[in-house]
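ok so i was messing around last nite and threw this chain in just to see what happens. nothing serious, just curious
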Amino acid sequence: MTVDKVSLPPELEREIFDFAARISPKTIPTMLRVARRVYVWVRPFLVQLVRVMEGECRIPLVSFMNDEPDFLASSVRYLCISENVEGGAIQDEEIRRLLTLCTHVGDLAITYPLQNSALIKPMHNLRRLICSLRDLFGTIGSIDPQHEALSRITHLELTDNFSNEDTAVQQSFWRQVCRIPRVTHLATSTPRSVDYTTLSRCLQSAPKLCVFVALWGRSEVRSAYRFVNALQVDDVRFMAGSFFDNDDDPWWEWEQSAAGYADDYWVRAEAFLVRKGRGEVDAKRYWMDDWMYLEMEA
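result:
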């Protein structure tokens, strides 16, 4: 008795392997050995998401930059470079080269102090950005909302801190931010430093903005709960949210979302806005997450 060999159409076969690589990255090394065509399809998933945080990541990353720059450039879609890479994990010139190479990135998180907006200008697929605009442009006064580096951004999380800034500086900053042409989702990860009276006035000049999130780490929520509830921001788009800082890793949720394993706070913010519109939650409520009300009342 003979059994006929069944062959799937290449398009379907590739879709299956792509799906497997996305949901189970640990199996990618095994899949690379299946066949040459599978190797070509699946290998880009090895570097689709890059976090430059740990010292041990430097050697393979620099190896890719030196030996396969074109592969790295075409494969990286999510890139996170945090401030704790200082101190030997990766050199400043290597970070600049990495940013220069990765022109296909669509989601960039960079808290490393980098004063060169030109480095992200060629990233024509960039839609989501986490950064300090002060660091990116050098000074608050130099921020250019019409700069090509910002021209395609729709989701912008700002790490700029205003603890030592007066009202005039904040007013100038938020006015510039609200003029960035395509931003519909805006957040601050330094919410205690913000002058909310100034922010509220600036939001009125941003009709295209869908949501503004005052963002806290999950471990900060208990101390921030009353602070947020006491704010006087009369704008349905304004809300407060948290990210899951697993084991003191502030980028855990970002990575899980980029990998497709979890929703990020942007998704939760949109859902919260819909619930407000339906009257399912109090119109004056700021916190988007239900769980914290249960925890605070416990």
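not much to say yet. Residues 9-46 form one domain.
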